[in-house]
């Protein structure tokens, strides 16, 4: 119990405003300066040095009751002894005050002070006891005049009207002899409780311990015989609580407030610290009733400027001293951490800064890819009548170029630092580009597969228009998925850290939807791998089916490997390596695919331009075999040819 209260008192001293000393934070600082001045000046006997602030006394009620019980005891004694204490009571009175301070309690001192000649040998008498290493006792009236009007702990109760104080009656039977009691006697005396007493302002008790203390006084009363029943004041019994070793808290109210602190109480010293804006106040226990009993630690986001010292904080006493002396040589400021740091110990960076050189090189290469894709589309348009181009279905070649372009555009979205909008946009060009590019490839392969699996001389109507109609649902499913992802599972910006340097960088948090997208791509590619297996022996114009097969297998194997590497290793190394890995994946998905599909066609185109007679002969032969809209499977030689209105032979 005692330890708990000591902890409470060491953490805070609760005050409420009662005078001009304490109606503002500046007044509280003035009060602290006053405390220091009084302690450093020469002391003369008395208790006139008062700090006019009042505190919440509830935590000390237990100790105040010691004074109440003492006062009631002495009131009974005076009633029995005709209103005086004789000389033989001196030892008893000293024993009472010594007993009040004995033991492990917060009571520093106790006094019994009586009116003139109540103690018959002397006009004034005030046995007082206090403790340090030992319990001491002496007559305080020899040190100063406690009846002076400036002695709050005595004068306040002395001038109060006690005439209407309640009386209590005790019935006592003393012992008459060895076998019987005497006749029962009624004793009527005034009795006080804790509300009748008085808590003083904190004061400096010069001569009674030379410390700052607060005193609770309880009145000693007796019933006067003239007129009968009139209650008169005869003195006081006190207990003293030492404030010198009770810590005050100058830190802000919201900082370091224990749960048991009464939120309605107003601690006038709270918020009177002098810590700078970059620091936070932390109270220091054990310094007692003194100004500057705190340390100024750096706030989060700042670091201590002196790296060589052990204690990374400015002492509050030094901060206060610099203000009092107008010393500007030290600013007692912490230094702001590098950008992005929540906490730090020096100026080391916390953010990963993009390597602009690497990213610009990648963007230049992507621009080159876009230029080449555009040239490819132009060549398709210019030479669409040549068999090498027409056999590959120009419509689907355009769609492949569109898909490749969208895949390349995803690199531009990934270039800047992610934002909420960019994270939402980011999946769109990638998934739509993949759907267009590889959807076109897979449908062309599926057409060969559908024709090749026919076991009779049967017409198969699979024109480009029919294939385009089958591409629409694939694109539609991808679009719906992206819309739902953007609305229901909106990607957000997340924070990652590098493994080696612990630097922070921003990335898009795609949640579980990312795995749904990967699953959809996997299903599409696995279907393509199956189709490639089916048509592995099917002949086609310019070996296009074989190159499509290589492109799909290449994407399934290499891209899967790159995704695993990216998730397990690369993402922990920082955004630049992630960006570079994304570019490598782009080469797998776009460059390899475009090269495998178009280089053989352009090689055949060049050959056709060098030998126009051969191209004309092949076109005439193909036209003679064509029908208006039907594909024919010639079982005898397993020659697969799909014919449309625009194409004599389409793979």
TrEMBL record:
The keyword Glycoprotein applies. One of its GO terms (cellular component) is postsynaptic membrane. InterPro entries: GPCR_3_C, GPR158/179, GPR158_179_extracellular. It comes from the Eukaryota. It is a multi-pass membrane protein. Keywords: Cell membrane, Cell projection, Disulfide bond, G-protein coupled receptor, Glycoprotein, Membrane, Postsynaptic cell membrane, Receptor, Signal, Synapse, Transducer, Transmembrane, Transmembrane helix. One of its GO terms (molecular function) is G protein-coupled receptor activity. It is found in: Cell projection, Neuron projection; Postsynaptic cell membrane. PROSITE patterns: G_PROTEIN_RECEP_F3_4. The keyword S-adenosyl-L-methionine does not apply. Its main location: other. Belongs to the G-protein coupled receptor 3 family. PANTHER family: G-PROTEIN COUPLED RECEPTOR 158-RELATED, G-PROTEIN COUPLED RECEPTORS FAMILY 3 PROFILE DOMAIN-CONTAINING PROTEIN. This is Uncharacterized protein. It comes from Owenia fusiformis (Polychaete worm).
